User: Which sequence fits this backbone?
């Protein structure tokens, strides 16, 4: 018995040590939660509003060297 | 749960970005920034209130809530950036980029992007005030004008009109600036001046005397075409940030960029080659470059033989500047010089850019002429991609120089001779003798060359020297009495040198009047308890008018909001005083004044058009400028020429010269002296301004002429006499001839249209008086029209001159600064002798340089700009969005110099100049400056020798940021041609505070 | 679908702070809050470079990932915004952000700009667009007006670009190609010796 306990401890300690060295790619990742605030009409607007999209694209020309 | 970011890679660069480097200026400011001034304003105004801010509103604003869109021009530098303002209920609620402007394409620097704050500012002078026993007391406008007017009239009565000194502004529109000059003439003095004196006066004089006009020859936009760019004494990244858009585009197109400066500036950070120059050694540097150019035969010999006079004399001087001598004086090693010279030689056309670093020296005119000579030797002037791109400072400093308040000339560089006064008397439609009688007629005074002259013909005291007009013994002045009162309209005195003497001078005055949007340093710098008036004056966003950018393009600026609080525009204030003084009817004879008391900017511009033939400010009618503003999107951003549309073929803003009458439709001149184009399309020759010969040599052009010219060689300036000799005088219309005959004094002023019969007697008349009427004085524009019909330049076709025989140094010479750290060089490169009178004041040179101060004051002290502020900074330091970014006055000092003095970064230090002025500022330790050189910004004010003067401001009007004016510690020194002040090379000592 | 992006071209940036004041102007950002700032590396030394930094509107925004109250949302165009009514001002996002973008106004917790303030890509915040309330809480909503962020639109040298990432990339690629063709005859190492 006396000899097994250290052995187990050693194994456990070794395993722990290894764990400490090892950066698992399989850890729990924090996924952004679901947004809980007030809705923003703009969030979806650009997708549906082709006119606004077009307006923004044209507006972008102002940033060109011309 | 273990929390890690899904993609946890903060890249090294973004990490570093977050930290910044140890000594970056922002970090420095952030550390020093959370000061009282910061805390005081944090959260001062609720945000919604700023948008809706109503306390400054006036009744005339439309109350229907519709958004009006106004197009204005930034008032913070000479690039001329357009800006769009959205105005609702009279409040400037939103600022939008003006993508359509060909000058800035929507771009702005920190100042331009803050323009809307002008409409929000709560730091303004809100109503007229006067200082009574140390307290600011509110007045009505009527009271103020009566009180000030009565005192001015009393001084005029007792001491003569020259005892009031007037200061106009480069920040006024062309119309305001023009009326400032006209006002002084009607008051009866030449004692009026403005910022250009201490900005580019040495450029204007040096450049105009080299090739004709003292202005930027090309444009910011034209820098897209450069193959090489040499910056000397210009930090465009901070002083003209939007110019950098054009500069970097030029660089991306392949141009080699060389920066020469005592500091490794933010502009230098973008250069291909940077050379650290010892302050005040510009001439030596340029001659050092030319040494390599001549040595290797890199000069443009054909260009020189056709278009340049006097270069041989330059060669003789340049021969003295071998690489070793050049390095000894400038500190730049031979290999760097050779490399730069080769770059300039192999990459033509190249341009040179200079600013205050070159002009603000006691030999400023030598510097500017040396720069010109370099460009002439390389054949770079008069070419797209070449030129002398002299970046002017204030938004309308070019316009104010051209048409505004200058002590040495009437509007349009006509000078002060009797002929000039008679020309303007005709334009103003007033009697010349009446004008003359307005002046001091008690005596004649030293005109500067030992001869006596009438005060009307002697240049006034310039802005750099008004304090000497107060402090000097009256016996030493070339006018009847000392200055007893001053009237400042739009000027910051903290941008002038010799602060402590200025304080004494201000305290000696009977009266100080400050017409400005803000109280200014002048209101608080002295111990005065009485006799200071503040007149609330509108910014350019509260009035309409035209403004001339550095490239000579004139833009129409729409009024954005009504005058804030009780303020009035400059021109309206001048009208009030003209009425008080009894000459309003004469002065505003052809300028209508509306019910609010505002003289019509359109009428004023038309009067400017009628008089400014010398520089072609004649074709830019308000209608044409408004058309350009409306169709600005049709102009090419490189050539500035409109392609199609109603302005087809014209250059944006009709850059002067825009010859002849507006009806002549001259397109403006984009590149000066470009003889590859016809004059009718903006081509030009060098001006024949200096006669036709010198020492028996022909100085007209030889074999060079503008495209399609009917005279295929050099020719003098056009006069009626020249037209007659050429047989072209018959092409003048009857109306034109009638006007010419009137100008010649041969007939009455024409009223209505003249018939051929009316002028028959003059058609073939040979008369000296008629012959003498020239392209500058012919008010009909006929002489210009006929010359251009033959594709000739009205001002003649001459060589540029590399030597100026009318200046103290014919050949530009290096002379050591009056206060130099290299006293060992003084014996070889001494300054000039003292002068008894330059423009009414004695001016010292040798007697100052006689003393060696380099022992007690071993550090070279120079100054410059920060991007966030402008000029004296009173306005920009009162704008919250800008003030937050620069909260402390500081001095840049090299780590070695700091360690020698036991100074740590951000520590308070005393900087003391050799005349005793000392300032308490923070140390910023940086390698940006070399060892032995320190640098400060010059925009601060509101402190004096360690003391915050916050209590002296009218309550609530103190700028968000105050600090020591660097010029409290600067010293004596003036250019002998223009009285430019020396700010860029003096001495100081620094010690821990 | 387009993704809105900022890009700062360090070869063009001159540290003029135009973007900073344009942001202050458009959004009326109070003193002490810097939604955008210009960072300079090697200030005053050869090789000095500046770049303008604000919220980069990350595709996988770390701020959103760590937010304990889930106040962040991303528009379909990739603009990262947050609801100030929900935000508790804990500063966790400040730890997470690689750019130091989140700002914490110094005035009281319920001051004019809420607990945490940051660049909105000039797209306001939740709730109805273009209202006074939206402006007071979040600043301008230029996107809803068909305009792009004021900082980029007013950039002095067009160094800072903002818009559809593909269009931004096109401009940048073109510039890089042009610069690539530019022979460099002189470099900092030569100007300054070995340093």
Assistant:
């Amino acid at each position: 018995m006396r000899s097994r306990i250290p052995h187990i401890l050693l194994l456990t300690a070794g395993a722990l040590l290894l764990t400490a060295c090892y950066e698992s790619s399989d850890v729990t990742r924090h996924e952004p939660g679901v947004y809980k605030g007030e809705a923003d009409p703009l969030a979806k607007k650009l997708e549906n509003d082709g006119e606004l999209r077009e307006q923004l694209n044209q507006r972008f020309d102002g940033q060109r060297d011309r | 749960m273990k929390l890690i970011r899904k993609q946890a890679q903060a890249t090294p660069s973004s990490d570093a970005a977050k930290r910044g480097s140890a000594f970056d200026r922002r970090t420095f400011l952030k550390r020093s920034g959370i000061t009282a001034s910061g805390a005081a304003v944090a959260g001062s105004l609720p945000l919604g209130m700023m948008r809706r801010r109503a306390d400054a509103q006036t009744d005339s604003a439309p109350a229907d809530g519709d958004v009006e869109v106004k197009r204005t021009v930034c008032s913070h530098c000479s690039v001329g950036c357009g800006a769009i303002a959205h105005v609702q209920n009279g409040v400037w609620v939103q600022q939008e980029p003006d993508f359509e402007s060909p000058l800035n394409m929507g771009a702005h620097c920190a100042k331009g992007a803050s323009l809307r704050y002008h409409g929000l500012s709560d730091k303004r002078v809100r109503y007229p005030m006067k200082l009574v026993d140390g307290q600011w007391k509110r007045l009505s406008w009527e009271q103020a004008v009566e009180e000030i007017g009565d005192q001015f009239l009393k001084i005029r009565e007792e001491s003569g009109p020259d005892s009031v000194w007037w200061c106009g502004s480069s920040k006024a529109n062309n119309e305001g600036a023009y009326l400032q000059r006209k006002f002084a003439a009607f008051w009866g003095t030449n004692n009026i001046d403005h910022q250009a004196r201490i900005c580019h006066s040495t450029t204007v004089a040096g450049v105009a005397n080299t090739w004709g006009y003292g202005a930027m020859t090309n444009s910011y936009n034209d820098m897209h075409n450069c193959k090489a760019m040499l910056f000397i004494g210009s930090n465009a990244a901070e002083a003209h940030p939007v110019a950098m858009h054009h500069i970097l585009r030029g660089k991306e197109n392949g141009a080699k960029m060389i920066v020469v400066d005592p500091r490794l500036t933010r502009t230098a950070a973008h250069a291909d080659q940077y050379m650290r120059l010892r302050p005040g050694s510009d001439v030596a540097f340029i001659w050092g470059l030319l040494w390599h150019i001549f040595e290797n035969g890199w000069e443009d010999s054909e260009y020189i033989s056709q278009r340049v006079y006097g270069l041989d004399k330059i060669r003789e001087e340049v021969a003295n500047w071998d690489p070793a001598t050049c390095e000894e004086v400038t500190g730049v090693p031979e290999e760097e010089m050779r490399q730069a010279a080769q770059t300039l030689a192999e990459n033509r056309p190249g341009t040179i850019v200079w600013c205050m670093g070159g002009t603000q020296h006691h030999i400023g005119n030598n510097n500017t002429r040396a720069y010109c000579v370099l460009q002439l030797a390389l054949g770079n002037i008069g070419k797209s991609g070449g030129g002398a791109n002299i970046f002017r400072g204030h938004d309308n400093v070019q316009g104010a120089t051209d048409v505004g308040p200058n002590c040495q000339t009437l509007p349009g560089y006509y000078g002060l001779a009797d002929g000039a006064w008679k020309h303007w008397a005709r334009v103003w439609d007033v009697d010349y003798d009446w004008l003359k009688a307005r002046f001091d007629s008690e005596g004649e005074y030293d005109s500067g060359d030992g001869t006596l002259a009438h005060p009307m013909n002697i240049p006034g005291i310039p802005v750099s020297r008004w304090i000497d007009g107060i402090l000097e013994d009256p016996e030493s002045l070339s006018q009847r009495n000392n200055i007893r009162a001053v009237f400042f309209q739009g000027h910051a005195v903290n941008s002038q040198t010799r602060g402590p003497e200025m304080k004494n001078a201000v305290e000696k005055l009977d009266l100080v009047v400050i017409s400005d949007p803000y109280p200014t340093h002048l209101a608080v710098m002295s111990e005065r308890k009485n006799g200071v008036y503040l007149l609330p004056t509108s910014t350019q966003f509260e009035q309409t008018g035209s403004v001339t950018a550095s490239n000579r393009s004139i833009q129409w600026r729409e009024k954005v909001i009504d005058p804030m609080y009780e303020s009035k525009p400059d021109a309206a204030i001048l009208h009030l005083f003209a009425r008080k003084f009894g000459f309003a009817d004469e002065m505003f004879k052809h300028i209508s004044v509306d019910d609010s008391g505002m003289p019509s900017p359109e009428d004023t511009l038309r009067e400017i058009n009628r008089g400014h033939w010398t520089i072609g400010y004649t074709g830019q009618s308000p209608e044409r400028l408004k058309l350009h503003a409306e169709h600005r999107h049709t102009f090419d951003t490189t050539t500035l020429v409109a392609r199609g549309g109603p302005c087809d073929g014209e250059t944006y803003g009709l850059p002067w010269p825009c010859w002849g009458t507006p009806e002549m439709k001259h397109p403006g001149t984009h590149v000066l002296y470009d003889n590859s184009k016809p004059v009718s399309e903006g081509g030009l020759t060098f001006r024949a301004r200096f006669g036709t010969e010198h020492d028996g040599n022909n100085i007209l052009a030889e074999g060079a002429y503008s495209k399609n010219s009917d005279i295929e060689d050099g020719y003098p300036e056009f006069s009626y006499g020249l037209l007659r000799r050429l047989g072209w005088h018959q092409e003048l219309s009857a109306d034109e001839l009638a006007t010419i005959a009137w100008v010649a004094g041969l007939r009455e002023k024409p009223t209505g249209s003249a018939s051929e019969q009316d002028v028959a007697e003059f058609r073939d008349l040979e008369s000296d008086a008629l012959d003498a009427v020239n392209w500058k004085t012919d008010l009909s524009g006929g002489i210009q029209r006929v010359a251009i019909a033959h594709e000739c330049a009205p001002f003649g076709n001459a060589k540029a001159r590399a030597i100026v025989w009318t200046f103290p140094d014919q050949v530009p010479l290096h002379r050591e600064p009056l206060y130099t750290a290299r006293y060992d060089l003084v014996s070889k490169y001494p300054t000039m002798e003292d002068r008894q009178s330059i423009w009414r004041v004695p001016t010292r040179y040798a007697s100052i340089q006689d003393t060696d101060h380099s022992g007690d004051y071993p550090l070279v002290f120079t100054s410059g700009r920060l991007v966030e502020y402008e000029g004296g900074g009173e306005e920009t330091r009162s704008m919250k969005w800008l003030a937050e970014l620069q909260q402390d006055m500081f001095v840049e000092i090299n780590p070695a110099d700091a360690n020698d003095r036991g100074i740590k970064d951000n520590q308070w230090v005393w900087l003391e100049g050799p005349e005793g002025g000392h300032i308490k500022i923070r140390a910023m330790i940086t390698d940006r400056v070399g060892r032995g050189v320190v640098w400060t910004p010059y925009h601060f004010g509101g402190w004096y020798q360690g003391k915050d003067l916050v209590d002296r401001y009218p309550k609530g009007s103190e700028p968000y940021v105050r600090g020591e004016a660097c010029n409290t510690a600067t010293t004596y020194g003036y250019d002998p041609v223009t009285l430019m002040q020396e700010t860029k090379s003096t001495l100081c000592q620094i010690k821990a505070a | 679908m387009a993704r809105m992006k900022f890009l700062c071209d360090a070869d063009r940036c001159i540290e003029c702070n135009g973007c900073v004041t344009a942001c202050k102007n458009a959004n009326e950002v109070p003193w002490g809050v810097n939604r955008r700032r210009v960072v300079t590396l090697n200030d005053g030394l050869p090789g000095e470079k500046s770049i303008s930094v604000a919220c980069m509107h990350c595709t996988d925004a770390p701020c959103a990932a760590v937010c304990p109250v889930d106040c962040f949302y991303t528009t379909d165009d990739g603009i990262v915004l947050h609801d100030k009514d929900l935000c508790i001002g804990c500063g966790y996002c400040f730890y997470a952000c690689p750019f130091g973008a989140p700002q914490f106004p110094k005035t009281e917790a319920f001051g004019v700009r809420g607990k945490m303030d940051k660049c909105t890509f000039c797209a306001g915040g939740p709730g109805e667009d273009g209202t006074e309330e939206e402006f007071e809480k979040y600043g301008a909503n230029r996107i809803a007006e068909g305009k792009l962020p004021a900082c980029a639109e007013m950039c002095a040298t067009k160094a800072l670009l903002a818009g559809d990432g593909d269009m931004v990339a096109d401009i940048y690629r073109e510039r890089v190609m042009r610069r690539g063709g530019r022979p460099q005859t002189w470099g900092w190492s030569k100007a300054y010796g070995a340093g």
